[in-house]
Amino acid sequence: MTQETLTAAFGWMAVLNIGFLAIATCMLWAMQDWIAGVHARMFKMQEADVRKAYFDYLAKLKILTIVFAVVPYFALKMV
């Protein structure tokens, strides 16, 4: 596998992950009351705990996207 192919793969992976993160964030923001109620009833949790779990999910997803997709892409572009 050449460096150009690897750079392109990490670039597209970064784009897809950032897109998924943006869609997930927008969906949770737009439907937060309804979806928090559904998940609270489904998992027998308090709505405040569900909202904290959403925040934790988005934070971890953002960190994983940066560490495993964006940073390798920029590192390969710099080489």
Automatic annotation (TrEMBL):
Keyword Transmembrane helix found: yes
Domain spans labelled DUF6868: 1-79
InterPro entries referenced in this protein's UniProt entry, alphabetically: DUF6868 (IPR049220)
UniProt entry tagged with the keyword Transmembrane helix: yes
Keywords for the protein's UniProt record, in alphabetical order: Membrane, Transmembrane, Transmembrane helix
Domain of life from the UniProt record: Bacteria
TM regions (residue ranges): 12-36, 57-76
Pfam families in the record: DUF6868
Name the record gives this protein: DUF6868 domain-containing protein
Organism name: Aliisedimentitalea scapharcae
